[in-house]
């Protein structure tokens, strides 16, 4: 099916902001008129979404590719199409049980009465996504919002205009605008968006903008879920198969050209093994991508500005004494940038001070596992942590003695694709979770209900206080 693309102004135009206000009021009124969609209504919405993703999958691949320059089509299908379909299917199978009120015990003094928790839709949920996975990061939270019975307004990044236009066309084909509405626009539009008094706001992006979003939400006391980023470490244990770990980490750094919040940011390897590890990463990358420039399976850096930032990180590291090992043919030109492994790294280098979000892999050496964990703890709490080749006891120590939003052992990133697991950060990498049951709970209000039996002698607790209360 060929999509009709509705043009969206890339600039923060007054019309888009006016539309936000109008649709917010419309969604709020529609929610007030139908505050508790039943299971069948919620399921119907998720099924419509799945059908649309299936029907539009080729257009999605083309639109994301156009926005990036080159975006590996298989990566788009895997993450932007299959990811949300699996997420929605998981919700379809479990929503009946998630929606059920949960019985709780009463205090002994109140025996014979009843207490339970009801999960109620919050209302209108705002969703702000970012460009690196423009569908997965907006439709994922949307699935949780719809499963929980909410209405949703979705703001997509200014860097993916074609995908934004397609998303608007696709979603307007399955939802009325008072159920789900999509917005484009740049920073001014984003600021107007997060100033709206949503009943919940889910933001995906950088910790810097996350702070701004939270400040704006505070004015309305809007609860926020912040899906942010950070420097996710990959610890390669002393007994790890170095080549195997190098292959997994190279894949994590090359998938979407490292522009992924859960990419391994840097590797920690045992003292004396960084050269061997760097060579193994180079070999693995070369096997995955025999060529880089013009390879349709190797994703471009999204804009020239983002590419320039990455080149600057490399220049800074080289100027400060690091050794750079390029893994491919056009490491320094164009927006398809081959992976560069950096050894001889120190803390003064910019690439150890900020999230890399691209195909650059700093490699640091450690003496003991304790030292590697201390290095991880010294920085902000990351979104993910990866560990390779540790004994079960060492894995337990890493899990208990470091903090990270989520962990994959013996590989990278795959915990995010398990839709029965919650996804979210901690500290600088975010707060709150979505995916699966946790997403449903996050976007529902857990309402406590206590029901007194009419005959229950509650008067015993009224003044004048008798023996019962005096003896407590
Ligand atoms: P960003 O924070 O610059 O932008 C994110 C989104 O916020 C964009 O859509 C942008 O239009 C919007 N925005 C910009 N200014 C805003 C404002 N003042 N108010 C509201 N919205 C505003 O992030 P980015 O550079 O586009 O993305 C990279 C960052 O996102 C990295 O830190 C990465 O780790 C993180 N990320 C996190 C996840 C996750 O799920 N945790 C996923 C992808 C990316």
Unreliable spans? 1-12
User: Nearest-angstrom radius of gyration?
Assistant: 25 Å
Q: What is the oligomer described by this structure?
A: single chain
Percent helix, as a range, is 40-55%
Mean pLDDT: 94
| CA distance, first residue to last residue | 72 Å
Shape: globular
Number of continuous helical runs: 15
Give the strand line-up of the largest sheet. 10-11-12-9-8-13-14
Bound molecules: nicotinamide-adenine-dinucleotide
- Please outline the major beta sheet: 7 strands, mixed
What is the β-strand count?
Answer: 16
GO molecular function: coniferyl-aldehyde dehydrogenase [NAD(P)+] activity
Family: Belongs to the aldehyde dehydrogenase family.
Keywords: Coiled coil, NAD, Oxidoreductase
Organism: Variovorax ginsengisoli
Short description:
The chain has 472 residues and is an alpha/beta fold.
If you had to describe this structure to a student in words, what would you say it looks like?
This protein is globular. Helix 5 (136-147) links the parallel strand 3 and strand 4. Helix 9 packs across helix 10. The chain is built from 15 helices and 16 strands. Residues 1-12 have low confidence and may be disordered. The longest helix has 27 residues, at 73-99. A 7-stranded mixed β-sheet has the order 10-11-12-9-8-13-14, sandwiched between helices. A 6-stranded mixed β-sheet has the order 5-4-3-6-7-15, with helices on both faces. It has 472 residues and is an alpha/beta fold. Nicotinamide-adenine-dinucleotide (NAD) is lined by residues 128, 130-132, 137, 157-158, 187, 190-191, 194, 204-206, 209, 212-213, 227-229, 261, 355, 357, 383, 425, 430. Belongs to the aldehyde dehydrogenase family. This is Aldehyde dehydrogenase. Keywords: Coiled coil, NAD, Oxidoreductase. InterPro entries: Ald_DH/histidinol_DH (IPR016161), Ald_DH_C (IPR016163), Ald_DH_CS_CYS (IPR016160), Ald_DH_CS_GLU (IPR029510), Ald_DH_N (IPR016162), Aldehyde_DH_dom (IPR015590), Aldehyde_DH_NAD(P) (IPR012394). Residues 39-66 form a coiled coil.
């Amino acid at each position: 099916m060929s999509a009709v693309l509705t043009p969206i102004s890339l600039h923060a135009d007054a019309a888009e902001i006016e539309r936000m206000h109008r649709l917010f009021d419309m969604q709020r009124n529609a929610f007030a008129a139908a505050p508790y969609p039943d299971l069948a209504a919620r399921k119907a919405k998720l099924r419509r979404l799945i059908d649309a993703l299936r029907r539009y999958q080729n257009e999605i691949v083309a639109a994301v590719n156009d926005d990036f320059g080159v975006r590996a089509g298989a990566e788009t299908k895997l993450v932007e199409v299959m990811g949300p379909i699996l997420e929605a299917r998981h919700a379809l199978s479990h929503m009946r049980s998630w929606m059920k009120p949960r019985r709780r015990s009463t205090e002994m003094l109140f025996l014979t009465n009843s207490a339970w928790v009801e999960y109620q839709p919050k209302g209108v949920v705002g969703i702000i996504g970012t460009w690196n996975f423009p569908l997965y990061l907006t439709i994922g939270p949307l699935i949780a919002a719809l499963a929980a019975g909410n209405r949703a307004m979705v703001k997509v990044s200014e860097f993916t205009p074609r995908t934004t236009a397609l998303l608007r066309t696709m979603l307007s084909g399955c939802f009325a605008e008072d159920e789900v509405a999509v917005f484009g626009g740049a920073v001014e539009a984003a600021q107007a968006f997060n100033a709206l008094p949503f009943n919940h706001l889910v933001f995906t992006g950088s910790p810097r903008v996350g702070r701004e979003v939270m400040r704006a939400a505070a004015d309305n006391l809007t609860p926020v879920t912040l899906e942010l980023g950070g420097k996710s470490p990959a610890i390669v244990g002393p007994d790890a198969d170095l080549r195997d770990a190098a292959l997994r980490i190279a894949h994590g750094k090359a998938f979407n050209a490292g522009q992924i919040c859960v990419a391994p940011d840097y590797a920690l390897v045992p003292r004396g093994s960084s050269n061997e590890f760097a060579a193994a990463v180079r070999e693995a990358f070369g096997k995955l991508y025999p060529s880089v420039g013009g390879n349709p399976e190797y994703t471009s850096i999204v804009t020239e500005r983002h590419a320039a930032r990455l080149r600057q990180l490399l220049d800074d590291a080289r100027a400060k004494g690091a050794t750079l090992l390029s893994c491919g043919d056009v490491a320094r030109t164009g927006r398809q940038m081959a992976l560069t492994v950096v050894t001889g790294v120190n803390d003064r280098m910019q690439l150890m001070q900020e999230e890399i979000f691209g195909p650059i892999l700093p490699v640091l050496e450690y003496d003991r596992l304790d030292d590697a964990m201390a290095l991880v703890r010294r920085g902000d709490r990351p979104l993910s942590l990866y560990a390779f080749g540790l004994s079960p006891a060492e894995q337990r120590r890493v899990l208990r003695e470091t903090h990270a939003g989520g962990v994959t052992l013996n590989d990278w990133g795959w915990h995010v694709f398990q839709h029965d697991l919650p996804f979210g950060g901690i500290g600088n990498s975010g707060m709150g979770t979505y995916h699966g049951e946790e997403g449903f709970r996050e976007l529902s209000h857990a309402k406590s209900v206590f029901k007194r039996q009419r005959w229950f002698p509650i008067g015993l607790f009224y003044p004048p206080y008798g023996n019962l209360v005096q003896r407590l």
